[in-house]
Amino acid sequence: MESWPQHIQFREISGAPSALLLGSLCLWLMIWSQKQDFTNLNGNIYRLEDLILLDSKAQQTELEWISYPPNGWEEISGLDENYTPIRTYQVCKVMEPNQNNWLRTNWIEKGDAQRIFVELKFTLRDCNSLPGVVGACKETFNLYYQETDSEVGRGLRENQYVKIDTIAADESFTQGDLGERKMKLNTEVRIIGPLSRRGFYLAFQDVGACIALVSVKVYYKKCWSIIENLATFPDTVTGSEFSSLVEVEGMCVNDAEEEADNSPKMHCSAEGEWLVPIGKCICKAGFHQKGDACEPCGRGFYKSSSQDLQCSRCPAHSFNDREGSWRCDCEDGYYRALSDPPSVACTRPPSAPQNLVYNINQTTVNLEWSPPADTGGRNDVTYRVICRRCSWEPEECVPCGLNVGYSPAQSGLVDTYVSITDLLAHANYTLEVEAVNGVSDLSRTQRLFAAVSIATGQAGKAVC
Fold first, then answer.
1. Which EC numbers does the record give (predicted)?
2. Is there a contact between 215 and 121 (Cβ–Cβ < 8 Å)?
3. Is the peptide bond before 194 cis (omega within 30 degrees of 0)?
4. Which CA distances in Å does 296 have to 314, 318, 325?
5. Where residue 95 sits, what CATH number does that domain have?
6. Domain CATH code at residue 247
C-alpha cells in the first residue's frame, strides 16, 4: 500500500462528513489515479489518440461550472504530487431530504464528432458509514446532457436536459477506509450520440449523496490516417451508432493505381479501428512496391506492367539509363517486333540461307537451300523469293511479273524449297532467297540473301 502524501490531512467535524474531509480524499485519489497508465478500473483503455473535448484534470485554473443551487456542488482546489493545482467538485448534502443539486459544465463544442464518450472518475461515501444519517442519503447521481448550437448563458432549466444514465459506484468508502487509508476511486464511461447540434452541455444531478467528482473527460474517436495496400485512408470520425462501420475509399499512393475492378476500401469502426480491407492499389509500370510506397525501377531494370510484382533486369541486347522504366531500349543493330513483349530479348535479322542449289526443267526452276547459320535469336524464321528477269547487259534486271508462279508460295515459306514456274524460255533470271524473321523489316542494314543466275532452256545444276 502506498503511503499518504504528507501534505494531505483528514478530519471529521461533529460526526458528519465535512467538505474538507471529502475534498482531501478527492485530492489524494487524484494523485493515485495519475499513476494508472491510462487504464481505469473497468478495464477501459484511454488512448492518447482519442480527441479530447474536455479534461477537467488538465485545467489548473478555476473551472467555473454552474452550480444550482449555489450551496450545492462546491469547487475545490488542491495540489497533486508535483504540487500542480487541480480542480474538482464535491457535494455532501446527506443530512437533509429531497436534495436536487445540479452542476453544469461550460459549453462543449463537438467539432465533427457524432458519438461522444464521457469518462467520470469519482469517489462516493457509503451511507451506512455516516453517523446520524437516516434514509435521506443516496449512493448514486445522475448524468444529463443538453444539445445546443451556441452557449445559452448561465441559466439552468432542468426540463431541457436529457438523462444519460444513473451513475452508481462500484466501490464506496467508509470511515474505516479513511483510517486505513484505502483507495476507492470509481471510473465510469458513458456514450452520447448521435449528436446533431454544434455543441452540448453536461450536467450532474445530486439527489443526496456524498460525492467527490474527481475528473470529467469528454472525448471522441477517429480512425487515424493510415496506408494499407498502397492506399491512403484519411482521418475518419467514427459513426454515430455502436455498430456503425463507416466505409471509406482509399486513394492510391504516388505512382500506384487501383487494381482493375478492385478499388481499395476500408471500414472505420465505432471504436476508432480500421476493419475489413477490400481491394488494393498496385504500383504502376516502371515502379515496384517497397513498404508503403512505390519506388522507381533502377537503371538497367524495368517493369512493363502494374500486374508484375518486381522489377526485372533488362533482357539480352537491351538497356536503359534512367529510373522508372517500363521497357528497355534495344542496342544498335537489334530490334523488338511490335508483337514482342518487353520481357523478350532484342533480336536482329537472320543471316542469308546456306547451300542454295537449283534445278532447271525447261521453264521451271526448283530451288533448295539450308537454314541460315544465324537466326538472329528468333524462332520465327521464314523465307521469301525474289525473281528478276535480266537482259544480256549486266545489272539490267526487272521484276519477273505476275505471270510467274511459285509453289508452295513466294513468301512466308517454312520449308526450304520452292518451285518457280512459267518462266520465259531462253531468258536470263536472277533468283534471290532471303531468310526473314519478325524484325527483318525493322532493320536499316543491307539485306542478306543467297542468289543464283540461271538461263531457261538449259538443263543443268549449279551451286551458289
1. 2.7.10.1
2. yes
3. yes
4. 14, 18, 8
5. 2.60.120.260
6. 2.60.40.1770
What's the CATH code of the domain at 411?
2.60.40.10
Instruction: For residues 48 and 153, give the distance between their C-alpha atoms in angstroms, rounded to a whole number.
Output: 32
Task: Compute the mean pLDDT over every residue in the chain, rounded to the nearest whole number.
Answer: 84
List the one residue out of 119, 113, 49, 53 whose CA is nearest residue 246.
Answer: 113
Q: Which residues of 159-187 are buried (b: 16+ CB within 10 A; e: fewer)?
A: eebeebeebebeebbbbebbeeeebbbbb
Task: Give the model confidence (pLDDT) of 277-329 as tens digits.
Answer: 999 999 999 999 999 999 999 999 999 999 988 999 999 999 999 999 999 99
What's the rounded Cα separation, in Å, for the pair 235 and 63?
31
Is residue 328 within 8 Å of residue 420, measured between CB atoms? no
Residue 315: which CATH number? 2.10.50.10
Specify whether 274 is located in the same domain as 417.
Answer: no
Containing domain of residue 367, as a range?
Answer: 353-463
Question: Which residue in this structure is represented by grid cell 474517436?
Answer: 221
Task: State the SS3 of 413-461.
Answer: ECCCEEEEECCCCCCEEEEEEEEECCCHHHCCCCCCEEEEEEECCCCCE
Beta bridge partners of 108: 200
Residue 92: exposure state from Cβ atoms within 10 A (0-12, 13-18, ≥19):
buried
Distance CA 66, CA 151 (A): 13
Contacts of residue 116, Cβ cutoff 8 Å, sequence gap at least 6: 53, 110, 191, 192, 193, 195, 200, 218, 219, 220
State the CB neighbour count (10 A cutoff) for residue 206: 25
Rounded Cα distance, 30 and 45, in Å: 18
> Is residue 27 domain-resident?
no
Residue 175 confidence class, pLDDT cut points 50, 70, 90: low
Query: Residue 127 is placed in which grid cell?
Result: 451511507
Task: Find cell 474536455 and name the residue.
Answer: 54
- Structural domains of the chain, count: 4
pLDDT tens column, 380-410: 999 999 999 998 776 688 999 899 999 999 9
d(CA 2, CA 5): 9
Q: How far apart are CA 206 and CA 141, in angstroms?
A: 5
Residue 300 C-alpha cell reads as: 538497367
